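Q: Could you fold this chain for me?
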Amino acid sequence: MKRKVAFKTLGCRLNQFETDSVLTDFYRSGYEIVGFNEPADVYVVNTCTVTNQGDHKSKTAINQAVHGKKDSLVVVTGCMVESQRDYLENRGDIAYVIGNRNKAGILPLVEAHFNGEILSPESIKNDVFGFTVAEKSFHTRSMIKIQDGCDNFCTFCIVPMVRGRAVSRPLNDILGNIRQVIDLGYKEIVLTGVNISRYDFEGIDFTGLVEKILSLEGYFRVRISSVEPEGFGAPFYDLFLHEKLGPHLHLCLQSGSDRILKQMHRTYGLASYMEIIEKLRDRYPLFNFTTDIMTGFPGETEEDFKATCNIVSQVGFSHVHTFKYSVRQGTRAERMPDQVPEKVKQQRSLVIRELSLENKQKYRQKFLGKQQTVLVEKITKNGMAKGYGEHYVPVEFKPANPGTNYFETVTIKGMSSPSHDFVLKA
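A: Sure. Below is the predicted structure, expressed as structure tokens.
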């Protein structure tokens, strides 16, 4: 009988890419991929440690994997390993604890275990770009890793400690990876990494990389995942004239207060951030901006928070990933005075979420009567197609063709609002 393997991924799209790659290794080796709640011979938990919530969810997933499954092999990898290795190794119920640099070598470690061999986690593949092209995936779109690590050292952030210094993937490897996933049938790719705007390989910067990707043959769509607001200029803005590039950016903000941004050691101020928004909106009025907002950074006053609320409303972000500041051990913000009470952080988060919902509804209403080219990702039980348009807004419609994983252009006629989803209807 085939051995069974289950995966749980916490955190960012980079983790999703890496899980899809490791999953493909197991799939090609004959393992059956099952749900995380199902019985399995191997459970792989790819953890996140960016926030307290990430830690909590990761620990919950680990506990779920080990609970009542004494005969199963539990492998824990990801960023929590880098920050809490001693805790994980001393638990006594995890077979292997694998750091980010060795993550691509999980399969040979597991295979050696089942063959009765002893293989050290440190002896397996040690390469942050050494991942298999993801043939098998939990997602319709294919993640493409272009970069890893970060050199910014924001005062609140543990990422440089758990992912290391910034490094860019060789250009030809990226282009080859994309050609392969397009040949596998993927219609949409998402460029991902830790700080992708800092991509720099042999004189090719991020703009140059995207330009080369868009020039590849075939009809496919490109999306840019979370990106820092730095290093953009006219050549970058011109890229969105290309039909392959989705007019959407998740442009990280964190705070609408210049004072707080400086305390965070962010590499931009509000003026430069708003310049990016204005230049893109001037050229592409329906351009979709989403962002991250942190509430309760040490020293954040009511005036600082009000400034953040004003920017959120002014820009009209269609979605705001809102999270409370979490103390991360070893960061400079851990030692800062005027730590904000948890109750205040929670209240401010709720305010931002309400503003985000208002923005989402207002933004999506602008598509009524307009067309969207939707990548069909699933068919519901009642025969409706669901997917995302080029502006990264969800659309539901009666499909003209059967099946999934194809593009269909539709006219938006309405919008639903169950649970504030505001899904566009065609």
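A (continued): The chain has twelve helices and 21 strands.
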